[in-house]
Amino acid sequence: MATVDKSKVPWWVSNLIVPLVNLTLALFVSGLFIFIAGENPYEAVKLIIYGSFGYIEGFAYTLYYTTNFIFTGLAFAVAFHCRLFNIGGEGQAYIGGLGVFLVAINFSFLPVPIVWFLAVGGAVVFGAAWAFIPAYLQATRGSHVVITTIMFNFIAASLMVFLLVDVIRDTTQMGPHTVALPKEQWFPSFEDFAALLGIKIRYSPLNISFLLAIVASVFVWFLVWKTRWGYEMRAVGHNTQAAIYAGISPYKNIIIAMCISGGLAGLLGVNEILGVHHKIVAGFPAGYGFTGIAVALMGRNHPIGIFPAAFLFGILYQGGSEVTFDMPNITRYMFVAVQGVIILFSGALENLFRPQIENFFVNRLNLKANA
Amino acid sequence: MEFLSDIASLINSTLRISTPLVFAAMAGIFAERSGVIDFSLEGKMLMAAFVAAVGSYFLGNPWLGLFLAIIACVSLSMLHGFASVTYKGDQVVSCVAINILIIGLTTALAAAWFGQAGLTPTLNEDQRFLEVNLPFAKSLKDVPIIGTIYSDILSGHYIFVYLAYLTVPLVFWVVFKTSFGLRLRAVGENPSAVDTAGINVFAMRYKALAINGVLIAFAGAHLSTAVNANFFREMSAGRGYLALAAMIFGKWHPKTALVACLLFGFTDALQIRLQGVELPAIGEIPVQLIQALPYVLTVVLLAGFVGKAIAPNAIGQPYIKER
């Protein structure tokens, strides 16, 4: 592989051109999968674009998915800056949802905006608590977080089904879910806002959690790049030995990074419980936690990158459901495979064409400078 | 007498349930001893299960299904090597990508080709592996103790069960008693020393990954063409991760990894047995909590309450040849 002087590579080449090339490759391979499944990839792309942009409710759905992916993407990114692979976003979100519900139902005597703040706090605390044990075991015993967080996903799923079946189930109904929260606690939805402006639109799950996602993005950016703690955490992730030498405790930083990561994943529960279902439904995290990995890697673990990456996955999810509706051979699992391909090309194989692309632009700029 | 036959059937299920874990742990030993992290055991096992079931369904022979599964798993191992050995990408990211890709792809293709929510068609007797009855198992059945051990515990398993336990001494021999094994371990501990000795580090890691792919294919084929007669969505159910935990707990050593796999198998067998049973003092434990038992055990074992595990020195680091 050719080596490139990194300092001469313009930022837009390494942060824009290279990711776009990798994404294009990933989408090309995904197109092959759709072809193998017996459908026309070109028609699928048209359906995806229509489904996610073609009508107002479709676009609202896209932004609703984006909200979830921002939360889980940020969650993965924060831990990743400390070189921790938190693939337990799924379980942390599930338990975070439990926190939202328990707080909202138990403090329903308080005025609504206060309950909302408390419920968001509940999501963060519960999500963080679920990440704490793997973090503690990683920090003190060296148990790899990839295995422990995966195990905690399984344990969370078992625990929640147990709670939903035996403990907090709405006994008047058949399905494994809780009673609904009081209506005044529901987050204002997109169609409520549209109605205020006199526009009538049909149901979509988009709600004010989207704004919370933007606040969370700014918070992560500030925390990781503008605080002393963020610096310490990145130092541990970059070179643990050097960090120890500089008097930074990897133990403390591993635990804090994982807990913040878990807390961010827990916020998915806010969107799903306060914003959409208004009760805990079995299996509500629905794979969003795993998608967060792809979102974070594509967004190069920076909030500014995570936003467009989350939006892209929002398009894929919402457009994808349009595809599954019209193409009987395509199921939503096809889009899980697409995520895998995107992680492969923008994460593991990100160096595939990077040197060639960077060389190309550096040489061109040199030619210009010499001319 | 009933107690004895209970124990016998518990040991019998332990041997059967541990089988995919044993194959996967042995596969993991090859990859990780050479310095390549392999969380993608899970995805490869799922891929093997899918390919073996589909291949056997179309070709009418489970051995051909197994052969295709081996090809598929070796290809995935090569993909992992391509990303993390040749292109020096992040090994964990590569594994996560493979796992998510395979969860999606297998289910999506099963649905597209067979139209039944991620299931493949049920295999008939010619298309799957059947239980193997050891010689004289029937006639020895009534002999006390020996009959129980031979006929009830050892006989009547799928071929993969016997293969798995034969693989363990073979892996031990290859890794610890051959010059290939010495090089393999050296590449995982100190690749630059191996490079100095004139051995190609990259080639060694690719060879280790190829063996890894072959072994893990057996685990998947066991799931879909022996124990079950079809593939279903996410049927590996975390076994790849359990096996990896067993391997770490076994300190990257075949014999101790085997013990850990049997422990997981036993917990799972016990878990199935305990469902719906009234326990003295505790009462009936809810089924969802019992099902979580193997996962809880994994976390407990990984916490290293029985001593800290030391990984191969160069694990997870791409080798960069100096110029």
List key phrases describing it:
heterodimer, A: 371 residues, mainly alpha, 0% strand, B: 323 residues, ABC transporter involved in vitamin B12 uptake, BtuC, two-stranded antiparallel sheet
Question: What secondary-structure arrangement, pairings included, does this model have?
Answer:
The complex is a heterodimer of chains A (371) and B (323).
Chain A: H1 11-36, H2 41-53, H3 56-81, H4 89-106, H5 112-141, H6 145-167, H7 190-196, H8 209-226, H9 228-238, H10 240-245, H11 250-277, H12 288-298, H13 303-326, H14 333-348, H15 354-370
Helix pairs in contact in A: 1-14, 1-15, 2-3, 2-13, 3-8, 3-11, 3-12, 3-13, 4-5, 4-6, 4-11, 4-12, 5-6, 5-11, 8-9, 8-11, 9-11, 12-13, 12-14
Chain B: H1 2-33, H2 41-59, H3 62-86, H4 91-114, E1 131-132, H5 137-140, H6 146-154, E2 157-158, H7 159-177, H8 179-189, H9 191-196, H10 201-227, H11 239-249, H12 254-274, E3 278-279, E4 283-284, H13 287-291, H14 293-302
Antiparallel strand pairs in B: 1-2, 3-4
Helix pairs in contact in B: 1-6, 1-7, 1-10, 1-11, 1-12, 2-3, 2-4, 2-10, 2-11, 3-4, 3-10, 7-8, 7-10, 11-12, 11-14, 12-14
Question: Could you characterize what this model shows?
Answer:
The complex is a heterodimer of chains A (371) and B (323). Chain A is mostly helical and 371 residues long. Chain A folds into 2 domains: 1-39 and 327-371, no CATH class; 67-314, no CATH class. Helices cover 74% and strands 0% of the residues of chain A. Chain A has helices at 11-36, 41-53, 56-81, 89-106, 112-141, 145-167, 190-196, 209-226, 228-238, 240-245, 250-277, 288-298, 303-326, 333-348, 354-370. Chain A starts with 10 loop residues before the first helix and ends with a helix. Chain B is mainly α. Chain B has a single domain (2-120, 144-302), classed as ABC transporter involved in vitamin B12 uptake, BtuC (Orthogonal Bundle), CATH 1.10.3470. Helices cover 69% and strands 2% of the residues of chain B. Chain B is built from 14 helices and 4 strands. Chain B has helices spanning 2-33, 41-59, 62-86, 91-114, 137-140, 146-154, 159-177, 179-189, 191-196, 201-227, 239-249, 254-274, 287-291, 293-302, and strands spanning 131-132, 157-158, 278-279, 283-284. In chain B, the strands form 2 sheets. Chain B has a two-stranded antiparallel sheet. A two-stranded antiparallel ribbon of chain B has the order 3-4. In chain B, strand 3 and strand 4 form a beta hairpin. In chain B, helix 1 (2-33) runs antiparallel to helix 10, helix 3 packs antiparallel against helix 10 and helix 11 runs parallel beside helix 14. Chain B is globular. The chains are: A mainly alpha (371), B mainly alpha (323). The interface between A and B is large, with 53 and 52 residues.
